[in-house]
Write a structure and sequence with these properties.
The chain has 288 residues and is mostly helical. It contains eleven helices and two strands; from the N terminus they run ααααββααααααα. Strands 1-2 form a two-stranded antiparallel sheet. Strand 1 and strand 2 form a beta hairpin. Helix 1 packs antiparallel against helix 8, helix 5 packs across helix 6 and helix 6 packs across helix 8. The longest helix has 27 residues.
Length: 288
């Protein structure tokens, strides 16, 4: 039971890092970016190529998994995404879904359809048993929890305790007034989008060994990203974190105890929560 709880926490924190960029663009920028999973896939493939072809250490490859998707996200935000900010949500959905299929096709063409394997360093391959085997902690999952916890704290502090965070909130509340006060709204949104893409890249790199990495990755896990955002609401980082942990634990426990039903448990939980609190589980005043 403790091992299932531990694995569920690790999986939930991974889902949080994968989904937080989507939460930021939807909650703060009011833009529906369903191509978010493509940036996660990019981070995973950057890690695989860097380690396999250039002998880059795993931790350094994680840094590249943030930088490359962040740069690509900044470029695409400036050239493709920005003109879509004022368009209806349906246009945004269709546009970003099209980008997903383009990313899947391009990845399949250049990298092949086979699943990619990440060769973890020896210090991440072990396992520690506690309480006479009642709690088994894989070292790699411990590493995932530590990295995701650090990223969560850093992101929360950046949004609530820094000048950039206050400027971002001002830009979201009223972009015209913020611009009149001297805030470069376009630059703020570009940085936010790039950071969200970079976080997705790290999530994809960390999740390559747990979730698997193949060209259909953005399509396979798109629903999970949306579930985290829908259940947590878009009001705060803490809400997303709580929702991701809840769903991660429910998914792991459901697949362990009722393997024949697969992801039925997590989908049932999502429906029940959204019927009870349509605006999200952790959003104030959301219950009917």
């Amino acid at each position: 039971m403790l091992t299932i709880l531990f694995d569920g926490i690790a999986y939930g924190m991974l889902l949080f890092i994968l989904a937080i960029g989507l939460s930021v663009t939807m909650g703060l920028m009011n833009f529906i970016n369903l191509a978010h999973g493509a940036f996660a896939m990019l981070g995973g493939y950057v890690t695989v190529v860097a380690m396999r072809s250039h002998d880059v250490p795993f931790v350094a490859a994680l840094g590249l998994a943030f930088v490359v998707p962040a740069v690509v996200g900044a470029v695409l935000e400036r050239t493709l995404y920005r003109p879509m900010y004022g368009r209806p949500h349906l246009d945004q959905v269709l546009f970003t879904i099209g980008l997903v299929f383009m990313a899947v096709a391009a990845t399949d063409y250049f990298m092949g359809a086979q699943q990619q394997i990440v060769q973890l360093p020896d210090w991440l391959r072990g396992r520690t048993e506690l309480f006479d085997g009642a709690l088994g902690m894989g070292h790699y999952r411990l590493f995932i929890i530590a990295v995701c916890a650090l990223l969560t704290v850093a992101l929360q502090l950046a949004l609530t305790r820094t000048r950039f965070g206050s400027r971002l909130r001002a830009s979201v509340d009223d972009a015209r007034v913020a611009g009149g006060l001297g805030i470069n709204v376009n630059q703020i949104f570009a940085i936010t989008f790039a950071v969200g893409s970079g976080l997705a890249g790290i999530g994809g790199a960390l999740g390559a060994e747990v979730l698997g990495l193949e060209p259909t990755f953005p399509l396979k896990f798109m629903v999970y990203f949306l579930i985290v955002v829908a259940v947590g609401g878009t009001s705060s980082i803490a809400a997303q974190f709580g929702a991701a942990l809840l769903l991660g634990i429910a998914d792991v426990a459901g697949k362990y105890y009722i393997p024949k039903l697969g992801a039925f448990v997590v989908y049932s939980l999502m429906i029940a929560i959204l019927v009870w609190r349509p605006q999200g589980l952790f959003t104030r005043g959301a219950a009917r």
